[in-house]
Amino acid sequence: MEKGKILLALTGIHPQRWHELLSAEREVVLEPNGANDPSITYAVVWKQKPNLLKSLPNLRAIFSIGAGVDHVFADPGLPDVPIVKIVADNLTQHMVEYVVWRVLDHHRQASLYRAQQQKKIWHEPPQRVAGDVSVGIMGLGSLGRAAASALLSLGFAVNGWSRSERGMKGVSTYAGEAGLIPFLNATDILVVLLPLTPQTQGIVNYGLLKELRRRNGLGGAVLINAGRGRLQKDADILRALDDGTLKEASLDVFEVEPLPKTSPLWSHPKVFVTPHAAATSDPAHLVPIMLRQMAAFERGEKLENLVDRKAGY
Ligand code: NDP
Ligand code: OXD
Q: In terms of DSSP bridges, do strands 246-251 and 28-30 run parallel, antiparallel, or are they unpaired?
C-alpha cells in the first residue's frame, strides 16, 4: 500500500505540534482544508466536524488523539472504517498519577488539614491505613487496571467493575449489571474510569452514590471521576454532597466543559476541580505510536487498539 496522506481535524486543541510531528513522516492536510480529498487515507481527530470524514472517499482509518472515542462517535455521518484509540504508557502514567494523588488526598484527609492550617490548629485526627479502605474502579480497562496496580502496591483494598468478567490478581472483580450493586456496596472511594457510551451515560447518579459503603473511617464515601463528564449527573453529586451521601468529590470532568462559571461545583467546599487534565494527550509521545501503526497497516499488519463500534469504546 502507498504511504497514506493524513487529515488533521482537531477542535479545541491547537494543532501546530501535532502537525509538525506528523508532517515529519507524511503529508498532512489541516482541517478546514481536505474535505472531499481523494488522496487522504487517514484522519487524526479530536471532535471532528460533523460529516467531514464521510466526504473522504478513500479514508482507511480514523485515529483518535484521546483514549476516549465518544467525541468520534458524536459525528452523525461517521464512515464505516476502523477507529483506533490511544493506548500509551505516557497517558497511562498521567492517569495513574492523578488517581493515586486524588485517592491519597482524600484518604489522608487533606481538606481537614488545610482547614486546620488556616486556623493554626495543631490537632492529629485518627488516621486509617490504606488496607482499611477499599477503592472501587469503574472501568477496568487499560487505565483502570494500571490505576488498580498502583493502588494495590500502596496497600489499598481494590475492587473493579467492568462490562465483561475481568480477572486481576489482588483485585475483587465484578461485572455487568448484576455485579454493580455488590461492587458499590464494597467500595469506599469510587474512581470512575469508564468510557462514555449510551449504556454508561448518566450512570453516576444519586441512586448509584447511595449504594457506596459508608462504614469506613473516612467519614463518608468519596467520588473521583476522571472518565467523562456525561457519565455523571452534576446535580446529583451536589445533592449527595449536601445530604452527606458523599463526603467529598474530585472531579476532572463535567457534564458541560469548560465547567460554566455559574456552576456551584467551582466553589463547593467538598469538591476538588481540575479542568479535564487528568491525563493529557502529549503529541511527542502519541504521534510516534500513530505513525508506527500507519506504517504497519501499510505493510499489511493489523491495526492495534481498535474500537469496538458496537460497544462504542
Ligand atoms: P478501555 O476501553 O481500555 O476500558 C474501558 C473499561 O470500561 C473496560 O473495562 C470496559 O469493560 C468498561 N466498560 C465499558 N462499558 C461498560 C459498561 N456498560 N458497564 C461496565 N463496564 C463497562 O478504556 P481506557 O481505560 O483506555 O479509558 C477509559 C476512559 O477514560 C476513556 O474512555 C475516556 O473517557 C477516559 N479518559 C479520560 C481522560 C482524562 O484526562 N480525564 C484521559 C484519558 C481517558 P470490558 O473490560 O468488559 O470491556
Ligand atoms: C482522552 C482524554 O480521552 O484526554 O484521552 O480525555
A: unpaired
What span, in angstroms and rounded, lies between the C-alpha atoms of 266 and 187? 26
Q: Is 155 in contact with 183 (CB distance < 8 Å)?
A: no
If you compute the radius of gyration of the chain from its CA atoms, what whole number of angstroms results?
21
Cβ partners under 8 Å of residue 56, min gap 6: 7, 34, 35, 36, 37, 38, 40, 43, 79
DSSP 132: G
Residue 145: CB within 6 Å of ligand 1? Answer: no
Ligand closest to Cα of 202 equals 1
Distance 68 CA to ligand 1 centre (A): 7
Q: Is the CB of 143 under 6 A from ligand 1?
A: yes
Mean per-residue pLDDT for 205-212? 98
Asked about 145 being catalytic, the answer comes back as no
164-180 pLDDT, tens digit each:
999 999 999 999 999 99
What's CA 156's distance to the chain center, in Å?
21
Q: Which ligand 2 atom sits nearest the alpha carbon of residue 86? A: 5
Count of C-beta atoms within a 10 Å radius of residue 293: 19
Statement: residue 295 has pLDDT above 70: yes
Backbone angles phi, psi at 285, to 5 degrees: -95, -30
Q: With beta carbons less than 8 A apart as the criterion, state whether 43 and 294 touch.
A: no
pLDDT at 131 over 80: yes
Separation CA 146–CA 106 (nearest Å):
20
